[in-house]
Specification:
367 residues; alpha+beta; conserved putative lor/sdh protein from methanococcus maripaludis s2 fold; Elongation Factor Tu (Ef-tu), domain 3; 6-stranded antiparallel β-barrel; 4-stranded antiparallel beta sheet; 21 strands; 40% strand; rod-shaped
């Protein structure tokens, strides 16, 4: 009897254990799996999302620009000096510095100086004296009282006195005269002053023929090796942001330092139709190099150990790319990588805290 009860209890205990194992296997495990899945989803939902700003990778040309300053100066061979052929006194100055003048327009009125008037009277007297002497020698020669040599000397003296007098008259020494402009141009300097006595050959003023101007730019000596003849240059007015840029080319690069400015002069040819003013301060942008390829903003590229990386955005996540750098102009940079495409969004702000595959939220929504 006792053995039968014990056997029955063992059977009941075994049945309870089997039932418990069955319940745990088919219900408890599934519950654990569901809870684990929910936990993983919760962890993913709780992962940080970085707020970033993006810009599109573009395919195009990137240029390195050297920005320098300078002024407008006369082009070589364009300066023409207006001078006097004899010592003169300035009666009137009829033009101003920077004035445009036309051909034959009066510039300065002059008259002979007192010393020049004296020389004119001396030349006239010498002419009369030599003419009288020639007639006297001719009469003596006709009477056989003078030799051929004496007659020849008298003729030479008279001819020389006549040449001197005619030369003075042709130069306008006889009285006041106006000096006109030989060419159309721009008055670049005026040294004449009313009442001043000007020696022969001294300039009264200077003209820039046909407004032939160019820009003289100052380049630091460490950058001068990068500037070459024929490079394109854009010239604009200093402190006038709205002024249109003029297109020019480097005409000449100096091989010495300007002692006044302590920089190297670079001369830029300008179109003759430009409205620049002589002596005006200008800003020049010289294109020293250019490259065609993929271009990104400079802020997109980050240093990482001995390489450079950037992050693009794909399907709401940051994708890390290792890149090689090309031309850098300070604002944009040429990047080289086989896995980059034109138009792909690249992170330009907020990229320092990014990691590969990290969730991101670009400004303005996901691309």
């Amino acid at each position: 009897m006792k053995k039968a009860v014990r056997r029955t209890l063992l059977i009941l205990i075994a049945a309870v254990l089997v039932a418990g194992a069955y319940f745990w296997f088919f219900h408890g495990g599934a519950l654990t799996h569901k809870e684990g899945g929910k936990s993983q989803e919760a962890n993913e939902a709780a992962a940080p999302v970085a707020r970033v700003k993006t810009a599109a990778i573009r395919t195009g040309t990137i240029e390195e620009i050297l920005t320098v300053y300078g002024e407008v100066v006369p082009a070589p061979g364009s300066l023409q000096s207006v001078s006097v052929p004899f010592e003169s006194r300035v009666r009137r100055v009829m033009v101003n510095l920077g004035q445009d003048v036309t051909q034959a327009e009066p510039l300065v009125e002059i008259e002979p100086s007192p010393d020049t008037y004296l020389k004119l009277r001396q030349a006239q007297n010498l002419y009369e004296t030599t003419r009288q002497a020639l007639r006297h020698v001719q009469d003596r020669f006709d009477l056989k009282l003078a030799t051929n040599d004496q007659l020849l000397q008298a003729k030479q003296a008279a001819q020389q006195a006549d040449l001197d007098l005619q030369s003075m008259k042709q130069r306008g020494i006889g009285g006041p005269q106006e000096i006109p402009a030989d060419v159309e141009g721009l008055v670049s300097s005026v040294s004449a002053q009313v009442g001043a006595i000007v020696p022969a050959g001294n300039p009264l003023l200077q003209l820039v023929k046909q407004r032939r101007l160019e820009a003289r730019l100052g380049v630091e000596s460490e950058n001068i090796e990068r500037v070459r003849t024929g490079m394109p240059v854009f010239i604009s007015f200093v402190n006038v942001p709205a002024s249109p840029a003029l297109s020019g080319t480097v005409r000449n690069v100096s091989h010495s330092v300007n002692p006044a400015s302590r920089v190297v002069d670079v001369f830029v040819s300008l179109p003759q139709s430009s409205k620049l003013l002589l002596g005006q301060s200008v800003l020049g942008k010289i294109t020293v190099s250019s490259v065609q390829g993929l271009v990104v903003p400079r802020a997109a590229v980050l240093p990482e150990e001995e390489k450079f990386v950037l992050f693009t955005v794909e399907n709401g996540r940051a994708v890390k790319h290792t890149v090689k750098l090309g031309l850098d102009n300070g604002t944009e940079i040429n990047v080289i990588a086989p896995d980059l495409r034109d138009g792909t969004p690249v992170v330009v702000l907020g990229n320092y805290e990014l990691k590969d595959k990290m969730p991101v939220a670009p400004e303005g929504g996901a691309p």
